């Protein structure tokens, strides 16, 4: 009986053939979560609704959506449809963060929505194994979120 159970478990977890593949998967997913967390921390420290957990999950989910098909051998041309679906889906999530008040000028949540969108893009880069691109994009996004508001305040 135990032999059957162990053999079934081994067969179920056979999608990762070796330690190299496990390391690749862990690196991509962990980096996506960490980079998403950094962006989320910045938003949460500003008191915004979409914080660490939201950004981590968005990045991790986007990474998974491209990592799994890539590991299964999906062609690059077909991957573009997966990415298109991610961009569309995240657009709906971001739209839910935008609130229009009484006047046309009083709109809140645009930066949060854009941040969620950027976090998904960083997750896609991680999932596709573009770790350096993901790190550079996250650093630039952090610069936009953390530094640019201070520059704008100085000009006022």
What is the compact description of this entry?
The protein is mainly α. It is built from seven helices and two strands.
Describe the protein in words.
- The structure is a single chain.
- By secondary structure, the protein is mostly helical.
- The protein has one domain (20-155).
- 77% of the residues lie in helices and 3% in strands.
- It is built from seven helices and two strands.
- The chain has helices spanning 2-12, 19-45, 52-71, 76-95, 110-127, 131-146, 148-155; strands spanning 99-100, 107-108.
- β1 and β2 form a beta hairpin.
- α2 packs antiparallel against α3.
- The N and C termini lie far apart (74 Å).
Keyword list:
two-stranded antiparallel sheet; 2 strands; 3% strand; 156 residues; single chain; elongated; mainly alpha
Radius of gyration: 19 Å
What does the largest sheet look like?
Answer: 2 strands, antiparallel
Question: Which residue ranges are poorly predicted, with pLDDT under 50 across at least 5 consecutive positions?
Answer: none
Number of helices: 7
User: Which oligomeric form is depicted?
Assistant: single chain
Give the total of beta strands. Answer: 2
Shape: elongated
State the end-to-end CA separation.
Answer: 74 Å
Tell me the structural class.
Answer: mainly alpha
Q: Strand percentage, roughly?
A: under 5%
Helix content: over 70%
């Amino acid at each position: 009986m135990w032999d059957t159970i162990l053999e079934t478990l081994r067969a179920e977890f056979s999608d990762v053939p070796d330690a190299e593949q496990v390391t690749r998967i862990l690196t991509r997913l962990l980096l996506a979560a960490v980079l998403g967390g950094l962006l989320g921390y910045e938003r949460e420290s500003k008191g915004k609704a979409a914080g660490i957990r939201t950004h981590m999950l968005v990045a991790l989910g986007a990474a998974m959506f491209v990592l799994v098909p890539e590991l299964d051998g999906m062609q690059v041309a077909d991957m573009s449809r997966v990415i298109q679906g991610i961009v569309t889906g995240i657009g709906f999530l971001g739209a839910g963060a935008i609130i229009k008040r009484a006047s046309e000028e009083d709109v809140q949540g645009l930066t949060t929505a854009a941040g969620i969108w950027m976090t998904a893009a960083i997750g896609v880069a991680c999932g596709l194994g573009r770790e350096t691109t993901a790190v550079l994009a996250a650093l630039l996004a952090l610069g936009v979120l953390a530094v640019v508001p201070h520059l704008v305040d100085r000009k006022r």
